[in-house]
Each structure stands twice: as C-alpha cells, then as structure tokens.
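User: What would this chain look like folded?
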Amino acid sequence: METTPMPDFTVKQILALKKEGMLSANPEYQRGAVWSENQKKKLIDSVLRGYPLPLIYLHYKKKEVSGMLRESFEIIDGQQRINALYEFMEGAITKLLDPIKDDKIAKFPNFIKQGDCPWANKSFEDFKGDLGYLQSNFLETKLQIVKVITEREDEARDLFIRLQAGLPLNAQEKRDAWPGGYTEFVLKFGGKKEIMRYPGHEFFQKLVERQSTDRGRARQLCAQVGMLFFERAIEGNWLEIGTQALDDYYYKNLDFDLESKETQRFRIILDKLYEIFIDAKRPKFKGHEVIHLVLLVDSLLNDYTRSWEDSFASAFDAFRLQTGLAKKSKKEGITNEYWDQYASGTQTNSDQGDSIKLRHTFFSKKMFDIIQPKLKDSTRGYGELEREILYYKYKKTCQVFECKGEIKWGDLEIHHIDEHHKGGQTTLENGVPVHKACHPKGRGAEEFARKWKEEKEKKSTV
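Assistant: Here's the prediction, encoded as structure tokens.
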C-alpha cells in the first residue's frame, strides 16, 4: 500500500469529483448517510470559520475497460463530511445555523454568539453580492486528503476497519471539550488524570467507585451532583439528570462562577465527607449514594451542631446494610420500605427527578432518626433537614385547615402545633408545614392546635 498526501486539494475539487461520478462510497463496507441536519450545518459552519477538518482517506482506483482507462476514488474515511459539503453546495441545506436565533439547537458558546456570523440563516445560493467572498472561501478551503494506492481491495477495507477501531467519544468526554465555567468546575472537582492541573477532589478520587477504564464517569457524577446542588433540589427543585438534561445544563452555565459562595460551599461539603469517611472501612460509594450524601450534608451544615458527625458514618453503614438486605429479599419475592422507597429507584429511572426525590426523602429520614442532629439554637425553630423532611412528609401541602394549598419552598414555614413559647418542642411530631401568610398566631394558633388534636384523635379511633 502506498499513501500520498494531497495538500492542495480543495472543497471545490473534491465536490467536482463527486458531481461527475468519480468519487463514491463502497456500500459493501461503508454505512449510509447517518448525520443529522444539525451535524451537517455545524460542519459547514466549521469550514466557514476556517476550522481544520479531520483527514479524509480516498482509495485511488484505475481500471481499464474495453481499451479505455477509468480513474476514480472510493471513500475510505470521510463520507459524512463530503456528503454534507456536497448537499450544501447543491442547495439541499437551505439555512445555516444562526448562533443566536437557533440557540436551543445550535448550542454555540458565548464567544461565538457574540461574534460576527454573516452566513447565519443563509444558503449557498445566498452567498452573492456583498457575501460573494463566502462562496469563494468555502470552495477554496483546503482539505487534508490522503490518497491511498493499492491493488488489493482487502487492504483498503482493513484500513477502513482500523480507522473506525478507535473508541468514539462518549457523552462526558464530549462535555469535557465544551468551553465555559461549568466544564471547568467539573474538571476541577471530578478530576481528569490525563491533565496535571485537574487532579480532582480527594472525595471523588479516593472514595467513589471507579472502573479501571473510567472514561469520565467520575466527572459525569460530579456534574450531576453539582446540578442538583446548585439548583437547590432539597428545596423542591428535583431535576432530571440524564444525558440530555446534563448537556443542556452545561450549555446554560457557560458563565458559571468558580469563585461563588455556592462553589466554595460545595468544596466544604466534599471536605467534610472526605474527613468523615477517610477511614476506608467500607466499599467505595456508588453514584446514587454520593448524590444523597452531598445533599444531606448540605442540609446539616448551617443549623446543627457538629455532634451529627460522630455517628454519621455508622448511620450510613446501617442504611447501606438495610438496603443490601432489601435487595436480597427482593430476589426471594419479599419487599419492604428500603426496597420500595430507595433500592428500587436505583435500578430503573434512577436519573429521573421523582425517583431522586423519593430516595432522598427516605434516606434523609432514616439518617435523621439515627444521627439525631442537635440545633445550634433551639429557639430558632426547625433546621434545614427537619424542614425538608416535614415538607415532603406532608406532600408540600399547607396544613392550615382553611387552606390545604401547595407550598413553594420559598414560601415554607414550619408551625409548632404546641407553640414553642408555651413549651412545645421542636420535634418532627410537633411540626407541620404552612404558608408564611397562613402561619397561625395568637388565638389562631390555639384554634389550630385544638382542631389538629381533634382530627388526630378521630383518626386514631377509626
């Protein structure tokens, strides 16, 4: 086999070969056209921006038939790119992407949206008059072509197979290439061993379950946890964290602030978890466990004394034991609350908001029952974790009898059934969620307590 670079080959020349039937793909081993419309448009956009395209490999073929010589090329690698270029020149692609108007589907970074794009929403036919230079630039763009000469068809096929043998980038590896602040956040905390400046936080590197061929799983988990943390899932904003949702979040947070107070708090939470679990007395954390540990510590940091830290690891071990037993019992046809409200949600639809919410509500309640966190100042009322538990226990519904409406997290207050100033304790049993505007006071509080106890007594006698 002989390979020869063709450094001066242009878009115009390669498309002329295709138009005249002198360039084709061999359907015996080549796949058909598979690129989406947006992929094609982004390739054209890259050409017009002067971005270099990957190498194109062409098998040069010379054949004599009935005394006549026929020369042509078969595409070994580059079929999708050549098809996109040809369709644009022939008018099959009518409107190129507009970085601003097509923001939702184009997802260009800010530096592109803020720059000039004279070809936005234009076709090849529109490149005339003042825009005539764009047509010339497009057609005269030089391509990186490798001419492959061999008489053995099998060598060309073998080269095709070898070129395709490399693993394609997975979803997280593609995100790692995105510009913007959230990419930097994920690389900084999730880590990328190939780059010395991104060792990652010790929590993700030493305590989280990993595979020998990680390929970005730790970074993806970091991105998902960050998404739930920064969007305040514990305040009721339980988001889906699957592939498309994560892609969209990266795009929406190109201007993410790495120096924000929230980012510093995220680091503090990871520091705390690393400090608690560094004894390495347990298997490494699975992804769903990391999500709930981070969100739970977030709820505990501000309002409670540090007493919960002493029993946190043992409480988690107890929870993990019960979850494991529940999985074992399920195989025997027996289920319990640990299966129904937690373990089952790690098997299917684990990245759905409702599933994450159900698991976290259950996890928080079970952990709370064991660690029994103590409020820093009991006169301040209910802490973040207790507010969260009561919020979901009563299904986000105001417990004032005349209301019973849904409560948004920002409008939530916890009312002591037996008022605090009259000796009522700040316990889960003595608290109910109410709207700020509905919060009973004075005689209203006394009336509420009376009705509440009457209703409770009725239910207990039924």
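The mean pLDDT is 91. If you want, I can go into more detail on any region.
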